[in-house]
């Protein structure tokens, strides 16, 4: 099974998001970066599928030069082919992102055979657009399902499940198809030392891409006012317990 | 100039705003009532009609609710030979309606289905879509000025969405459901849609129910545990306290990543969003990833060894100290308070 996973490099924002002076971007100067959480699970899922059924895992990202770090992370877990759509670091709108991915998928497939399965994260942690996978699927003429937390791969079809109103709905979709997964579909492994060594040697295929203005345009970003200010400390150690139980009673928690 | 102006106005007045409305166990879904509230705001002073689309037949209480929220026309959508959910078929049906009505905007709740269906509509039409909107208003006849959640609501983006119909989903935890100040009778109509073979490729084929227990998303009380719990075994005391309070246990991403607890218990941006009366967060530092999931809690109490932990800036009350000592003491105190 030939699997392509599309991932995004995102900042690790910690406990408080700080913006740049012009409020157009998150100030990332003091921050580390990671693969967006749902996509970490997409990479893990692809590797498990290939371990079980054979095949190849290709991981692709659209991002600045430094996004090669996230591709190497994927290689250290078992991805064999890395494709980097190198941008100038500006944020791409979801339409432009999907178009860039589609054109590269076409050219990769023309060279090396079709991808049976293309995996996305359900939404990127930073922009939360919830649509790139569906747009790519539509352009490629393939069926897609989003929000998937369980995936089983057969020869000609995949069985996907997603949560809905306290249960799960099940889909059977023929391959080739596009699936957007959610964290919780698996517990991603940690890279092994040999994996890390191997990852350094994988050649990254770089494709320059040019940013263009989208039709969903950021004006500015702002940090919302939080409903709570600063906690009142009820006590240190067990000293605060009686006061807390009294509050529970007032709030009707003990009823 | 005046001629151009009046043409623009008549163009605006022509289409209404279509809102896709979902159901839950209690009738029309709360998230959809919030979406209707935002959609009604887009109808604006020029008097666009607020139109609702619901899958299947409406019952009387549902129609009453739509009236209350200012819906002028309600379409019961019947998809031929297809009872189960199909993202593509539902998108086809909504797109039919949008084209028939000349809608200026299509709005849905920011749920799995809402996001998915609007993404399909966006993909088919090549129109942009903005997810998890908090506010929206027209800046001119072709573009919407909006604010939306990013980073799970830890950041707000002010943006311009250019393209008609405007495709918007509404943040379920960011907009209040407000009834219309001037409700008028709702006209109920039926729209039949025929799905294509392509639409039929993705259909829910089976429903798997899961056993009950207190659902995290709906729990009245949630006892949360983070890295500070220390180990899988450390959760014993939390489980006991949760049982005493009839609470669900929620955990941080660090806990599920360590494999101490299943992902189904994770509270946060990539886990479950909770809205309990009380969230008692124990040994959780307060990363945005986690805070994005508990913003709607009414009362927040944290137990933390570090008085400077970020969570203390987002809680109502704090107990500073070792949770492995405080939690058993709290359980004992609750038991003795109940005995007295």
How does this model look, in words?
The complex is a heterodimer of chains A (255) and B (340). In chain A, the strands form 3 sheets. In chain A, strands 7-11-6-1-4-5-12 form a 7-stranded parallel sheet, with helices on both faces. A 3-stranded antiparallel sheet of chain A has the order 8-9-10. In chain A, strands 2-3 form a two-stranded antiparallel ribbon. Chain A is 29% helix and 31% strand. Chain A is built from 6 helices and 14 strands. Chain A is globular and about 70 Å long. In chain A, helix 2 (68-77) packs across helix 5 (193-201) and helix 3 packs across helix 4. Chain A is an alpha/beta fold. With 340 residues, chain B is an alpha/beta fold. Chain B has 9 helices and 17 strands. Chain B has helices spanning 2-14, 30-43, 60-68, 87-101, 112-125, 235-245, 253-257, 288-291, 323-339, and strands at 17-21, 23-24, 27-28, 50-55, 73-79, 105-109, 129-140, 143-150, 155-162, 166-170, 187-193, 204-209, 221-225, 248-251, 278-282, 299-304, 317-320. Chain B has a 9-stranded mixed sheet, with helices on both faces. Chain B starts with a helix and ends with a helix. The chains are: A alpha/beta (255), B alpha/beta (340). At the A-B interface, helix 3, helix 4, strand 7, strand 9 and strand 10 of A face helix 5, strand 7, strand 8, strand 9 and strand 12 of B.
Which features would summarize this protein structure in a list?
heterodimer, A: 255 residues, alpha/beta, 7-stranded parallel sheet, 3-stranded antiparallel sheet, 14 strands, 31% strand, globular, B: 340 residues, 9-stranded mixed sheet, 5-stranded parallel sheet, 17 strands, 30% helix, elongated, disordered N terminus
């Amino acid at each position: 099974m030939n699997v392509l996973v599309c991932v995004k490099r995102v900042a690790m924002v910690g406990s408080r998001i700080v913006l740049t002076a012009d409020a157009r971007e998150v100030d990332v100067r003091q921050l580390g970066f990671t693969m967006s959480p749902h996509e970490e699970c997409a990479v893990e899922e692809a590797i498990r599928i290939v371990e079980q059924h054979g095949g190849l895992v290709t991981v692709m990202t659209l991002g600045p030069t430094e996004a090669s770090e996230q591709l190497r992370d994927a290689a250290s877990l078992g991805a064999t082919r890395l494709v980097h759509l190198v941008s100038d670091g500006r944020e791409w709108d979801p339409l432009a992102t999907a178009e860039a991915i589609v054109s590269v998928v076409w050219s990769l497939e023309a060279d090396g055979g079709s991808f049976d399965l293309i995996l996305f994260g359900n939404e990127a942690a930073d922009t939360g657009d919830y649509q790139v996978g569906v747009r790519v699927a539509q352009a490629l003429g393939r069926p897609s399902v989003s929000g998937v937390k369980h995936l089983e791969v057969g020869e000609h079809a995949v069985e996907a499940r997603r949560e809905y109103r306290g249960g799960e709905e099940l889909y059977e979709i023929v391959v080739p198809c596009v699936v957007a997964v959610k964290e919780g579909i698996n517990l991603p492994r940690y890279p092994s030392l040999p994996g890390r060594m191997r990852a350094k040697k994988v050649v990254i295929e770089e494709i320059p891409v040019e940013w263009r203005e989208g039709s969903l345009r950021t004006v500015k970003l702002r940090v919302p006012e939080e409903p709570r200010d600063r906690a009142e400390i009820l006590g240190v150690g067990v000293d605060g317990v009686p006061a807390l139980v009294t509050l529970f009673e007032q709030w009707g928690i003990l009823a | 100039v005046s001629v151009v102006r009046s043409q623009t106005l008549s163009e605006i007045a022509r289409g209404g705003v279509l809102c896709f409305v979902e159901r839950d166990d209690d009738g029309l879904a709360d998230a959809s009532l919030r979406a209707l509230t935002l959609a009604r705001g887009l109808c604006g002073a020029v008097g666009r009609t607020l139109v609702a689309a619901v899958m299947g037949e409406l019952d009387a209480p549902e129609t009453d609710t739509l009236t209350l929220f200012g819906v002028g026309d309600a379409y019961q959508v019947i998809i031929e030979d297809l009872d189960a959910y199909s993202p593509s078929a539902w998108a086809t049906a909504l797109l039919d309606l949008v084209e028939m009505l000349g809608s200026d905007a299509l709005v849905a709740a920011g749920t799995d289905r809402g996001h998915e269906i609007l993404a399909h509509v966006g993909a088919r039409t090549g129109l942009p879509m903005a997810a998890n909107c908090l506010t929206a208003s027209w800046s001119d006849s072709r573009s919407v000025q909006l604010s939306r959640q990013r980073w799970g609501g830890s950041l707000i983006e002010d943006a311009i969405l250019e393209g008609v119909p405007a495709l918007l989903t509404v943040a379920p935890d960011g907009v209040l459901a407000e009834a219309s100040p001037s409700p008028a009778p709702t006209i109920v109509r039926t729209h039949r849609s025929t799905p294509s073979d392509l639409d039929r490729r993705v259909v829910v084929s089976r429903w798997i129910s899961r056993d009950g227990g207190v659902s995290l998303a709906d729990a009245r009380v949630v006892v949360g545990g983070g890295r500070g719990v220390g180990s899988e075994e450390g959760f014993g005391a939390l489980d006991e306290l949760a049982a005493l309070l009839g609470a669900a246990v929620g955990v941080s991403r660090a806990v599920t990543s360590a494999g101490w607890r299943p992902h189904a218990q994770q509270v946060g941006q990539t886990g479950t969003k909770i809205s309990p009366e009380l969230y008692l967060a124990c040994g959780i530092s307060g990363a945005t990833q986690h805070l994005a999931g508990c913003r709607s809690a009414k009362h927040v109490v944290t137990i933390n060894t570090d008085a400077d932990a970020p969570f203390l800036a987002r809680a109502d009350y704090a107990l500073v100290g070792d949770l492995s000592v405080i939690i058993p003491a709290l359980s004992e105190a609750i038991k003795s308070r109940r005995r007295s």
